[in-house]
Amino acid sequence: MSDEPTFERGHAEGADPVGVNASAQAQVEAVFEQFGEPHPPVAIIVASREEWMAAENAAGELTSRGIDHRIHELSPTRSPEVLDKFLSTAGLRGIRVIIATAGHVPWLPSMVATRTDLPVIGVPMASNAIGGLDTLLATAQAPPGMPVACMGIGNVRNAAIYAARILSAAPMPPQG
Length: 176
Description:
By secondary structure, this protein is of the alpha/beta class. It has helices at about 20-35, 50-65, 80-90, 110-115, 135-140, 155-170; strands at about 5-10, 20, 40-45, 70-75, 95-100, 120-125, 150. About 40% of the residues lie in helices and about 20% in strands. A 5-stranded parallel β-sheet has the order 4-3-5-6-7, with helices on both faces. It has a two-stranded antiparallel sheet with strand order 1-2. Helix 4 links the parallel strand 5 and strand 6 (about 120-125). Helix 2 (about 50-65) packs across helix 6 (about 155-170). The longest helix is centred in the first third of the chain and has 16 residues, at about 50-65.
């Protein structure tokens, strides 16, 4: 028997406690730390500050409906590894729906859909070139097998309403 401290855990009511040594406990905690903090059920991903300002309209709609959310500026062109890490742990941290704008990075919603099984709502943003038709097509023409719900050009409020409907269609997992 070692002098190493143990943590006692019961795995079911009335079950005998299972001893877990400190090094195993530390390894488990290290794995969970990589997932980051728990996240509200809706994540809004933008690629630029301009899109952030538009996304605040979606945030306002979600707030008015009592739905927690968080806006993230994550650019797949400037820091693809940060976006990949965020998406790879999204569901584990409690995210249930992702809203992604398609503006400076017209293919952002499609890219998000390739890296998560969560519902993705794409919002094409107006562009200087042709008024947003390019971002609309980039969002609406996501590749087969990578569905993206496409809202109207600049209509982030509809994306928030749609996210609320997705969340209401399935019960929230128990918290705590």
